[in-house]
């Protein structure tokens, strides 16, 4: 199968200088989004997914961040771009939907003003003050941009778009704000849309509607999307391929259905085993423990403190990649040695047993 | 509560404050130990003269009656006669107010024109040499007594360098040319058609206004800087970078408006401090304004004038606070008219 | 930076306290004239020079610091406790007590402190003590306002409710429970205020209402020296500079404290 990558990330690593020392957050990340694909990164809060996306869009200040590795967009090396060029690219071809709709909209400007500015000047770094002034106040230009915004608001199913244009973010409901954010990201017709937990700050019913909105948009526009979520169920609904991220590392990647039928990594298996089912079958109550401290990460495999299969090999060596298919791999010591191969059933069984007798594999 | 309701409530609060102030001044001028009439006339005056004067000033009789009389006169606009000038105090105040107002306004202008850009630059070059130098400057200006700045300016720019005059509003050479119409020297010189006189007026304004603006400037620099830094880190600014908006637009339109609201509050406060600093600067530069008049009244125990000046300052102060709150509310929809956040 | 401030303030306090012992010419601090030595430029003998009647300026500056620091101590020593007490009561009790106290505070806050101090001082003979009284009598309002805000924000906190339920008396709640939680903003404000008190006092003296000659008030010295500008500049400039250093020290200290406490609060 030949690839046509729009976004190609190779061996990305990101670390931060901080008060408590150097935080080694993301490492060895290989990630690809082909044209027309929907790819999702799934992981817990703190697994490094947001950091990865910020590295892509160039929103990290270096220092204190240290970024290494290749980030290519449509053949262009993003890391070699200047700030100005980056800005242009961001506005033109990349769209980003932020996680928190309340804090991502500027509270002292109306929605109309912010979105129209984005429509008129997004990706337009050379717009100097004079040309801004001219364009902003040329009736035709501004009105044209306004129309585009209104159209977009309608497309995201915003109730009463005219009124929303003149409203301040604090006057809108959570769902409306999220739609405004989506509209803002789509205004300049990006080739790649990056969506950071869209709707997760909202309550469940609104969240659902936002997701189906996104699905509709994806169908209509044939865009590529990189989505971030902590919810495996959400990922399943809309993705073509899924990357599972833990502790700043990609631990598994596969086409969507393959993950759910035949996940290879214990973490993924644990996640699947914990998905509530209505059938009444027993489920694992989640995976004990919490994400690693990046200033003092676990040795060897970063998941070993919480893994039901962990042994000395896991503590000692960093696991390498095992391929299971053209687009499918997992990173686990268990696949390269002679020990038991993890399966969803086995993992589920081990997690439940650990729960009931309270034992845990200690690092 | 509706906007109008909030406004009304605010106004009634203001009136209450001013009323309280009038009581306070009344108490100070009449009730406290120390005989105002005696103080005014001096130790040489005879008992009779003191008595007569006291009667004229309404200093006899029960306190409540005195207060009523005092308030009546105040509301009518009768502030009595000034001891120093023998004019009605109200006339004195009206005559001298433009000079002070002009001085304060130019000083305010300096604070904004110099202070805000310096704050923005310091925020953008955070941690660098420019930032450190600016912060030190801000610190120093807040710590130095304004009369000292005034004197040092006179010394350096007046005496040593001889660039600027050090007293008064206009050189005597132009005294005949310029006709007083508005009382604002910058305006009057233009109206009188003499550009040279206009420049001269600026020359006279520069040092005192700059000296006056110093202490406030430091505060403006600091608050602008810290607000801008605060705002830079906000999600919504990060979002504008992701949308590819040109960076100067992000800073100068978006960040600035967000950062301006705390700055605005400080600016309002600074206006009041300017008024307070004027009392000292006008003395140093022999500036014939209300503040100098106020100081002279205090030194000569000119009671009516003291009351007049104090009430005037009170009214200005309270009004400026109201304006600041109104502007804050207009800029940030989350802020109510009482200056509170909804 | 606050360390530098602390050092400055500390050094000045020590110098001021020890002034009678370490000043080169302690007798110059009061009435003293020696016209043969008047108008001396700064030299080894007189590091700050001498003034118009022959007094050593360095000595007088040291004694001037004594006066300034005494002013700060008196004003804050009276103003802060009274203001905080009234503010705590107002914030905690609410209702008409709160309204009355705040109305009074608003009245005092309706004009800048210098002007009000001027007005108060005008009613009496101009002396240092009167000036101190004038300033102290209005300074409490700032603390009342601050303390009230702090107390009001604490009233609904759990630890206050718990104390109430346990039957603690109101004074106990106010002073043993709420106050310790409000200390850091108050402390920061007091330190920053010290500088403003010094400036206000110096301004009053400069105008003629504070420290009277021949006492060595810093502001008074500056005023006295203006008539000898620009030739004998040190008579004015050096005391003025001395004020600047003291206030700068307080401001640095206060700023540093504010950063320090903010950091703690965030953690």
Describe what you observe in this structure.
- Chain A has 363 residues and is α/β, with parallel strands linked by helices.
- Chain A has helices spanning 49-57, 83-93, 101-104, 111-121, 129-137, 139-155, 161-165, 174-186, 204-221, 232-238, 256-262, 266-273, 312-316, 344-357; strands at residues 5-18, 21-34, 38-42, 65-73, 76-77, 94-97, 192-196, 224-229, 241-246, 249-255, 321-325, 328-331.
- In chain A, α9 (204-221) links the parallel β7 and β8.
- The radius of gyration of chain A is 22 Å and the shape is globular.
- With 342 residues, chain B is mainly alpha-helical.
- The radius of gyration of chain B is 24 Å and the shape is globular.
- In chain B, 43% of the residues are buried.
- Chain C is built from 10 helices and no strands.
Residue windows where pLDDT falls under 50 for at least 5 positions of chain A: 359-363
| Oligomeric nature of the chains | heterotrimer
Distance between the termini of chain A: 41 Å
Strands of chain A, count: 12
N-to-C CA distance of chain B: 11 Å
So how many helices of chain A? 14
Largest sheet of chain B: none
Counting helices, strands and paired strands, the structural category of chain B is mainly alpha
Q: Name the shape of chain A in a single word.
A: globular
Residue runs with pLDDT of under 50 for 5 or more positions of chain B: none
Report the biggest beta sheet of chain A as strand number plus sense, adding barrel if it closes.
8 strands, mixed
- Percent in strands of chain A: 15-25%
- Helix content percent band of chain B: over 70%
Helix content of chain A: 25-40%
Order of helices and strands of chain B: HHHHHHHHHHHHH
Number of helices of chain B: 13
Number of strands of chain B: 0
Strand order of the largest sheet of chain A: 6-7-8-3-9-10-12-11
- The gyration radius over C-alpha positions of chain A equals 22 Å
- Give the largest chain-chain interface (CB within 8 Å): B-C, 52 and 48 residues
| Topology of chain A as a string of helices (H) and strands (E) | EEEHEEHEHHHHHHEHEHEEHHHEEH
